[in-house]
Fold each of these.
Amino acid sequence: MPDLAVVHGRSPSFYAVFDRKEDGDPGQTHYCPGCGHGILTKLLAEAIDALGIQDRTVLVSPVGCSVFGYEYLDVGNIQAAHGRAPAVATAVKRSRPDSIVISYQGDGDLAAIGTAEIIHAANRGEAITVIFVNNAIYGMTGGQMAPTTLVGERSTTTPWGRDPTVHGYPIRVCELLATLEAPVHIERVGLGSNRQIMAAARAVRRAIDNQVRGLGFSVVEVLSPCPTIWGLDPVEAQTFVRDTMPRTFPLGILRDRTATAVPRPPLPSPPDPAELPGILGLDGATAGTTGGRAGGPRHAGADHRIVAAGFGGQGVQVLGEVLAEAGLSAGYHVAWLPSYGPQMRSGTSNCHVRLCGGAVDSPLVSRPTALVALNQPSLRAFLPRMEPGTLVLFNADAVPPDGLPRGLRIGAVPATAIADRLGSPRAANMVMLGALLEATGMLAPGVVEATLQRMVTDPAWRDLDLAALRAGQRAARRALPATCLHRTAILGAPGPPGPGPRPS
Amino acid sequence: MGAQLIKGNEAVVKAALLAGCRGFYGYPITPASEITESAARYLPLVGGVFVQAESEVAAINMLYGGAAAGVRVMTASSGPGISLMQEGFSYLAGAELPCVVVDMMRGGPGLGSIGPEQADYFQIVKGGGHGSYRNLVLAPASVQELVDLTVLAFDLADRYRNPVVVLADGSVGQMMEPAAFPAPRPVPEPPPWAILGTAATRTNLVNSIHLDPDRLERHVRTLEAKYRRAEQREPRWDGWRTEDAEVVLVGYGMAGRVLRAAVEAARRRGIRAGLLRPLTLYPFPTAEIRRLAATVRAFGVVEMSTGQLIEDVRLALEGRRPVELHTRLGGNIPTTEEVLDFVAEKLAGAGAGLEVPAHA
Ligand SMILES: Cc1ncc(C[n+]2csc(CCOP(=O)(O)OP(=O)(O)O)c2C)c(N)n1
Ligand code: SF4
C-alpha cells in the first residue's frame, strides 16, 4: 500500500463541478459547514486515487445525508433504499468480482433499519468495504434519535435525553460485528482532530485496499460531526467527536485478519451455452436436441382421471409420478398434481394424475375414473366423489362391508402384505400400480416396467418395484370379478351399471 | 425435440437459465422453496451467482444490485415474502432496473396457509409499493407456460427496464407436466447503462431520487409513457371457443385450467360458453374483453381470491355487460362441477335482454 501523503487540491475522483446536483451551487457540496460527510468523501476520493481504482469503484449510497454521494464521487454510482446497501453491494460484487464496491452508510441506515443486511453481509464475508458514518443522530430527517445516540443526548424524539431504561444504550456496531468470524478488518476512527482524520484516512484506505487484494469484508466506523443537528459550531462539534464520543465508542482496530484471510474463490468459468441442456438434465427437451417424449394422438378420446391417496410415506406421489412418466412414454398427454396444503390434513397425501388422448384441460381431478386408496381414511375421503361404474382399489384384505356407494367396481388388494412378503412394505405403492394397470389396461405393463428401469437407479429397489408391479397385476385378477377387468370393461367407455363418467 | 415431465418449480429455474439468467437471490417459503433450491443447485454450474438472502427484503435489494450490474436476475417467493419485497419493487421500477420475480401465491392474509390462492393479485398487478409504477405481470397456467412465460419475462424486463412478475397460484409450481424448453441463449451483453466497475461505465448512475419537482414529474411521465406503450403492445391471452360464445368465463392460472374443462362441460349442456384466460394481467387484455362484449351476453369471473381479478374485468367492460363472480379460497381450487353450476345458475340467463352495444 502506498504511503499516506497529504493531498493538496482536488482528487481526480472528486468531481470538479457537481453537475448532478439538482439545486444549489454546483461548486459546493450540499453538506453543512463542518459536516463529517464532506471530510470523509474527500478521504474516500483520495484513497480511490491513491489505489488507482477510480474506474473499478462502485459506490453504493443508501438514504441519509450522504444519499447524494453520486454527486461528488466520479465513480460508478448506485443509489439504494434506506439500509439496504449491503444487500445491493453483495450482488454487485458477486456479479462483477473485479469491481471495488463501497457501501457508504449512516448510523440510522446501518444500525437501525439496515441491521439485518449489514450483519448478514458481514457474516457471509462479502468482499466489500463498508464506510459507516456514526454521527449519533438522524441528520437527513432533522435530528431524531439514532441507535448510536449517546446516553443523555437530546434529539427530537428523545426531548429529555436518551434514557437507557426507556431507549436502551447506544449500539456499538464494531463490537457487534466483531462477534462474527468472517470480517477481516473492523476499525473505528474519528474525525475529531487532524490527527484523528489522518488515522481515518489510513483506515479507509486500508479497508479498500483489502478488497483490492481480494480479501473479505472490511468495515470502518467513522465518528463524525453533525454540527447542524447537534446545535454546535463546527469547532465545538469536532471537539465533541474528539473528546466525548470515544468514551462510548472507543477508537481502534477491533479486528485484523488480513494476514490470514483466504480470498473467496473466483467464479468457475461459465460453460458454453451449448452445454446447458446437458447440465440442466434437459437433453432431448430443448430445441435443437433430440430424444425426449411428447403426447401424441395415439389415445384418441381417452380420459383417465386417477386419484392416489394414502398416508404420507406410503409412496402415493411416486406412484403418480411413475404413472405420469409411463403415460407420457406411451403417448398420452399427462399431468400430475400433488396434494400440498389443506389436502394434507391428518397426514394423508394424495395426487391427481390425468392421462388423456388430447391436451389436458384441468390437472385437478374432481371426478376420478379410478381411486387408488392405500389406507382407510383416504378411501373414506374420496369415496363420495366416485360415481357408479368407476374403479376403486383399496389396500386391504377385504373390502369394508358397509358404507359403500352402490355400483362401484371395487377391489381389495392387500398391497402392504404382498410388498412385505416381497421384501419391503414400502413397495406397496407399486403393487397398487400393478393392480391399477391390470384393472384398467390404460398402459401396457412393459411401458411401466421400462419407466421404472429408467427412474429407479438403485438395482435392489428396482427389482423389488418390478416384482411388486407384477404381483399387483396378479392380485387384481384375484380381487376383481372378470367383468371388472379391462378385458371386458375399459374405463373411459360407459361402464355398467351407471352412467359414464362425467368430465372432471 | 420432445418434452420432459418436470415439476413447475424446477422448470422455472431451467427456463430462466436458458434465457440467460445468471443471478438468483432468494429466501425460502412454501410453495416456492423448490425454485430457490433448484437455483442453488444449478446457478453455480452455469457460472451464475446464487445467494440465500437473510430475508425477502434483502433478496429484492440483491436483485437491485445484480440488475444494476447488468445481470439477468431473478427471485421467487410467495405471499408473505412478496409483501416484504414491495419496497424493492418500487425502487427497481423507479430506477428502471429489469428483474424477474416469481410469485407462487399461497393463502392469506397473514400467515394464511401454504395452499394455492390468487390473492396477491392486488399487490402485484396494481402495485403494492409506493409511487406511480406498475409491474408487468404474466400468468402461466401450465408447466409449459411457466417455461415460455419465464423466458418472455426476461425479455420484457429488459425491453421495458422494469420488474416483471410471473404470477401463479402455488399449484402451478407443484404440478408436473411435460414441457419443451427453448434452445439456450448466450448470456446477453450487459446493457449500456449498467455499472460494471469499468472505465466505460464509470459515469453511469442508477438512481430513483429526483428532488426537483419538474425533474421527478418528467421521470414519472417517462415511466407512464412506457406503461402506455406496454398496454398497446403486450396484452396476451388465450381465448377458447369465444367466437360463438354467449357467456365467457375469465380466469387465470389453475382456475383458468378448470374453466377450460368447464367450458366443454357447459357446451355439452347446451350452454355456449367460452374462455378468456389472460396471459398478461398487466397489461390486461382490456381491448379483447371489450371486443367480446359486442357479442357476449354475460361474463363470469372465477378466481381464488375474493374479487380482485374481477375489478379489471369490470373496468374493461365499463358496464357494457353483466359480470358474475365465483370464488374459492383457503387452498381450495374450484372444481369443474361447481363452475358448471355457477354458469348454469348465474350466467345462462344473464344479460338476456341487453342490446349489443353499437360502439363495442
Ligand atoms: C424506509 C424509509 N424509512 C424512513 C426514511 C426516512 N429517512 C431518510 S434518512 C433517515 C435517517 C438517516 O439517518 P442516518 O442513516 O444516521 O444518516 P445521516 O442523515 O445522519 O447521515 C430516515 C429515517 C426513508 N427514506 N426510508
Ligand atoms: S445535517 Fe448533519 S450529517 Fe447532515 S449534512 Fe448537515 S451536518 Fe452533515
Amino acid sequence: MSLIRIQNLARRYVMGTETVHALRGVSVNIERGEYLAIMGPSGSGKSTLMNLLGCLDTPSDGSYELNGKDVARMSDNELADIRNREIGFVFQSFNLLARADALHNVELPLIYAGVPPKERRERARQALVNVGLGERMHHRPNELSGGQRQRVAIARALVNTPSIILADEPTGNLDSKTGVEILSLFEELSRRGNTIIVVTHEEEVAIHARRVIRIRDGLIAADEINLHPRAVVASAPTP
Amino acid sequence: MNPGRELIEMVRMAGNAVKTHVLRSSLTILGVFVGVFSIIAVMTGIRVLQANLEDAMNGLGANTFQFQRFPAISFDDADWEKYLRRRRFRVEDLDRLEQRVTLAQAVSASADFGSGEASSKYARTNPNIPGIGMTPEAFTTQNLTLGEGRGFSAADDDSGRLVCALGFDLAAKLFPQGSPLGESVKFQGISYKVVGVLAQRGALFGQSRDNFIAVPLGTARRLYGENLSVRLQVQAPNRDTYGDMVEQARGVMRAMRRVPPGDDDDFEIVSNESAVGQFRSLTSAIRLGVAAISSIALIAAGIGIMNIMLVSVTERTREIGIRRAIGARKRSVMLQFIAEAVLLSEVGGALGVVGGILFGNLLSFVVKAPPVIPWDWVGIGLAICSAVGILFGTYPAWKAAHLDPIDSLRYE
Ligand SMILES: Nc1ncnc2c1ncn2[C@@H]1O[C@H](COP(=O)(O)OP(=O)(O)OP(=O)(O)O)[C@@H](O)[C@H]1O
Ligand SMILES: [Mg+2]
C-alpha cells in the first residue's frame, strides 16, 4: 500500500470572475521512505500541491489517500493531529511566529503534542543545535537572517520526529555550505526510513533525490527515477 | 493532549499575548477594574460599618427596648418633620409603664439635659460633653457597666442629690491620675460628687461613647425643669417573655398616647437588634444600586473585551494559521483566546478587588474599626469576571478557531 495516493487532484482558486487552475489533475503514488523532489517553474502549482499533501488545504477535485485513509473524510481533529505528528512542513515563507523566539517557535508543535515543558524545551534546543542555531535560541525571527529563519523552520518541522517531511524550497535562502548541511540532514532522515518530499528550483538539490517529479501548469510533466542519486558529501568536488 | 495540561498551556500563551499589548490590555482592563472596584469598595465599606455597628449596638441591655421619638437610624430628611411633631415622652409616663407593663422586669428613663464644659481641679474639657439624667435602673437597661464605684440609688434620684457617674474617657481626661471617686466635678456651673466611673464602651462610627456625665434623673429635673423630654427603657426578665412584653408595652403606650386603633404608632420601639436590622435594610438599597451600576460597568467592559479580542483575532490571523498548520486543534485555538479574554477580565478584577478592599477600608480608619475583607464578595467578584471573560470571549475565540488554516497563512 502506498503511503500517499493521489488521483486526479485539482485545485482551483476562484477570484471574482476569474478562476485560476493551480492544479489540473495530478495523480501520483508515493511509497513510504521515498526521497522525492518536485520541480517546476514558478507558479506551476508546487506549493499548492504541498499544501494539499500536508493536509492543510482541501482539493477542488480528486482524491487523496494517506496511509490508506481518505483525507477528505477525516475530521478536523484527525487532520490537526496528522499535521502535528505525521508531517513536518517546511514552508516556503517560513511561517514563524514573529513575536516568539526561535526556541519557542520550535517548541510549538510539541506543545500541541502535549509534551511536558522540560522535555520539549530540551528537544527544541537539540533540534536547533542540529540545524546549527545553538547560539540563536533566543532571537526572534526579525533578529535572524533569512537563512537562519529557514533553519528555524526546518528545526520546527523536524522536532516532533514526523515520518513525512514536506519541504518547500528548504535551501532557497541558504548559502551552499548550509544548504549542503540541510541536505545531508534530509539524507540522514531518509536513510532512517522517513519519507521526504522537497520542492526545489535547483537541479543541485534535486540530484540528491531518488525520484524527481516535474510539474508544469498544474500537471505532471515528468516523473523520473534517479538511478544514481548523489550522496551529499560536504567536501565532494562536483564531477 | 490532556485537558488540564492544555488549559495550562493556553493560559500561558494568553499571558504572553496580554503582556505584548500592555497599553491596550490596560485600557481594556480598566472597565472591569471600575466595575469590580465599585462593588468591592462599597461592600467593604458597608461591612466595616456593619461590623462596627453590631459591635457597638449594645446601647441597651439584654432583652430591652427603648421608646423614643426618632428611629435609631434614618437618612431620610423628609420624615424628620413627622418625628419632630411627635409628642415627647415625660417622666410621668414612666410611672404608668411601671404599673401597667406587668411583664417587664425593669423600666427606666433617661434624658439629655444639654451639653457643656466639665472640669475638675486638674483639667477641663471642651464644652461638648453631653449631660444625661438617668433613673437608677437605667444603668442596667442601657447596658452601662460600672468600672469603679456605684450607680445611683433610689434616694439619689428621689431627693435629687448632686452626684454623678463619669464616662470612661471623661474620667480619664478629668482625673489623669488617681481615682475620681469622691472628687468633685463641675458641669454647667454645678458641682457634683463622683460616685461611679463607667467601664469603657468604645467608639461607634468614629465617635467616642465614653465622653459623658450622668446624674440622677431626679437631680436633672430639679435643676433643669420637670418638662425634660425622656427616653423610656423597658426590660424583660428573659428572651422568652421579651416578645410578649414588647406587645404589652406597645399597647400600653398607644393607650397612654391615645393612638386611634388602626393608626400607626406615633413612637419608635428600638432595640439593639432592630437598629442593626434597620441598618441592614438601609444598606440593602445601597447594595442594590451599586450592583446595578457595576453590572452596567461590567457589561460595558465585556463589550470592550469582545471588541479588543476581535481586533486581536484579525491581527493575529497569521499566527492562528501557523498554529493550525503545525497541529493545533480548533479547540486549542478557541481555548487560547477564551483564556486570553478571561485573563484580561481577571487581571482587571483582581486589581479591582485589591483596590476596592483598600479603598473600602479607608472607612475603617475613619471610624476606628478593624479592617475587613469581604471574602464572599471577593469570590463573587472574581467569578463574575470569569463569566464576563467567557461570555464575551467566546465569539471572538470561535471566530479564531474557525478560520481556514491556508487562508490565514496567506493573510498579510
Ligand atoms: N490563494 C490563492 N488565490 C489565488 N490564486 C492562487 C492562490 N494560491 C496560489 N494561486 C495561484 O496558483 C498558481 C500556483 O501557485 P503555487 O504557489 O502553487 O506556485 P509554485 O509552483 O509554488 O510557485 P513558486 O515556485 O513561485 O513558489 C499560481 O498561479 C498562483 O497565482
Ligand atoms: Mg511555491
